[in-house]
Amino acid sequence: xxxxxxxxxxxEHLKHLPNDAEALHMLRKAAxxxxxxxxxxxxxVQTLAEFLPDEPQLLGLNINRTERILIRxxxxxxxxxxxxxxxxxxxxxxxxSHIIFGPHNADFNNLWNELRDEHQSLLMKGYSGEGFLSQxxxxxxxxxxxxxMRRQARIAAEKRKSTINANAGGHRLGGSSTxxxxxxxxxxxxxxxxxxxxxxxxxxxxxxxxxLVHQQEQDGFRTRAExxxxxxxxxxxxxxDLMYEEEMQRLGKPTAxxxxxxxxxxxxxxDS
Length: 272
Description:
By secondary structure, this protein is an alpha/beta fold. It has helices at residues 20-41, 85-97, 106-124, 146-161, 184-200, 209-219, 229-250, and strands at 8-14, 45-50, 60-63, 68-71, 171-172, 220-224, 260-263, 267-270. The longest helix is centred in the N-terminal third of the chain and has 22 residues, at 20-41. Residues 1-197 form the WLM domain.
């Protein structure tokens, strides 16, 4: 059954390379992780494709905003090994940001940061892709219009506002709790390093874009994006969570305990 209001019309993977079925699965998985953010903004992309350019530093490419997005899935030195899903998803979020902004300027970075924060928030809530949340239970129900979802999120946030006490002067980043045993300084450093490599590895708006697309089209195997109704419900649930987070932040209330906090006096700090 075709997915309701699909956000990607098709996927293209490099069928001649090893583990091609895993590559297609990885494309679908990355797509499923970003669809809640796409639905929130009304974004649709015709084709999400795997590419493996000769230049080892290249990671992603956006063609004509919504026509085609190419992302690297494999290591340059060994096409049998795949990059981490975290790396691939972050690259995809970067290329999606080019739907709105072309150059890598402050506006672009602000949008990319926003998408990254929303993605991390969903991960902490247990969103793992289409059709499954937390314990992997499929969701049911009917499609709720975006305006109604926003209204419900605002009501829920207002109710919670009356039952919690905000930290004095503090604003929590991302609304996510810290996983026990994780070195947050290392997390921040890794995220900064990944951000730099993705930006440097973006070929969007470059002189090489046409050649890279032609090369990918010669080798890509096209698969129509066929999904089932459970996927649509999972995306809707994730989107509702994002809207709730947004409303809580608008009210100046934290949405979770632990993690990072920020205030005008001390700046970024780690919660004890």
